[in-house]
């Protein structure tokens, strides 16, 4: 049973986008449009080129921002403010999920490749604010992105996470590789499972999965 596999866990780390809200909200549709527009303006390229670079840098670096920083010396702060300025109208409060998260024993944190202010807006829209002991964004990782191990190490050192007694919930399979290597229990939250040695559990229903742990 999943509950036994998590009996040692005292820190619960949650990704934000498409993890603490359903992918059907399609927030990333808005973010991707804003990223493409930002790339067009920052690099003075047309939309097809900007869109190609957005995807290329995401694949190669983990985030488009990292590619822009490393290859074009783009200032991350204006980028992060701009691309996360989106509507959250598609999000609805989830009181049942809030109850299950609140019931988890130990420390609960959010760690996203987005920004902490954006994460807090999303949590509030989902009715999940006040449940987490800390919320960390890419700015807290010195703009290093998941899946880079150094990004996780920076956040976990900052928070004091003991990885051998922690669990990571994440929708992007590659972002679970480093947590697994660091001794964490890993949970892939997505519609379809992804077969990999670094993924311990899969769920397409976070609420139901958490219900099995408490």
Question: Beta-strand level of the residues, as a percent range?
Answer: 5-15%
Structural class: alpha/beta
Shape: globular
The largest sheet, given as strand count, sense and whether it forms a barrel, is:
6 strands, parallel
* Head-to-tail CA distance between termini: 12 Å
Q: Pick out the low-confidence regions.
A: none
Q: What's the β-strand tally?
A: 6
Total of DSSP H or I helical runs spanning 4+ residues: 10
What is the N-to-C order of secondary-structure elements (H for helix, E for strand)?
A: HEHHHHHEHEHEHEEH
Q: If you compute it from the alpha carbons, what radius of gyration comes out, rounded to the nearest whole angstrom? A: 17 Å
Side-by-side strand order of the widest sheet: 3-2-1-4-5-6
Helix fraction by DSSP (H/I, runs of at least 4): 40-55%
The average pLDDT value, as a whole number, equals 97
